[in-house]
């Protein structure tokens, strides 16, 4: 059996429910993944805690992390930087634990290049109308920005071929069930491949 963890990347268009589904994944008592806390230059929202929700950084601090190669990936999103700390991810995978990233699509593309063996899951809205309803319902975006988000989402949905799985986020708990089933199947698959390899060596 492989002793390395699996890198799970959950991505998808803005407003599809990535944050909501990720929180639901980790609120299950049997959640077995380690969540990689991202770095961001966005200001903390009410109730957010540094080192729990994000590591909150200044623009200068973040740019230094980029220069020093401390980020596995990073992207700019609505005027702020977001990025994944590379050391945490590598050390946790080496320790045999699965790491869960919830990131936007530009970042997911960068991770695919560096970790082609990762498990890439695209969260899909049930429809574009429902996506618009969710973005409007969240109430964080102006009318202009909503239009931009919808245009961006349309393009992102066309680029799903780099993902291993597409999960439709119709119902949050159902999406969590599907993600858990995908990860479990991935563990069985890698075990089967390794068992087959050992079998082959033993026959020789
Ligand atoms: N590329 C990248 N995106 C991230 C990272 N952390 C969070 N994000 C994404 O950044 C976007 C904005 O997150 P946030 O400011 O918390 O607002 P939200 O829209 O309420 O989730 C979401 O799409 C997250 O998935 C990261 O480390 N890297
Ligand atoms: N399955 C779902 N059904 C209905 N509403 C949802 C569902 N998943 C998320 N939402 C809602 O959609 C909005 C956007 O979700 P959010 O998690 O902020 O998206 P993202 O992190 O992808 O930008 C939120 O108001 C959230 O409550």
Structure characterization notes:
The chain is α/β, with parallel strands linked by helices and 204 residues long. The chain has a domain at 7-36 and 97-203: P-loop containing nucleotide triphosphate hydrolases (Rossmann fold), CATH 3.40.50. The protein contains seven helices and nine strands, in the order βαβββαββαβαβααβα. It has helices at 18-27, 59-67, 86-94, 105-114, 128-138, 143-158, 172-203, and strands at residues 7-11, 34-35, 39-40, 55-56, 71-77, 80-85, 99-102, 119-124, 165-168. The strands form two sheets. It has a five-stranded parallel sheet with strand order 2-7-1-8-9, sandwiched between helices. Strand 5 (71-77) and strand 6 (80-85) form a beta hairpin. The longest helix has 32 residues, at 172-203. It is globular, with a radius of gyration of 18 Å. The two termini are 20 Å apart. The model has no long low-confidence stretch (mean pLDDT 92). Bound molecules: guanosine-5'-diphosphate (GDP) and adenosine-5'-diphosphate.
Characteristic terms for this protein:
204 residues; alpha/beta; Rossmann fold; five-stranded parallel beta sheet; four-stranded mixed beta sheet; 7 helices; 48% helix; 19% strand; binds guanosine-5'-diphosphate; binds adenosine-5'-diphosphate
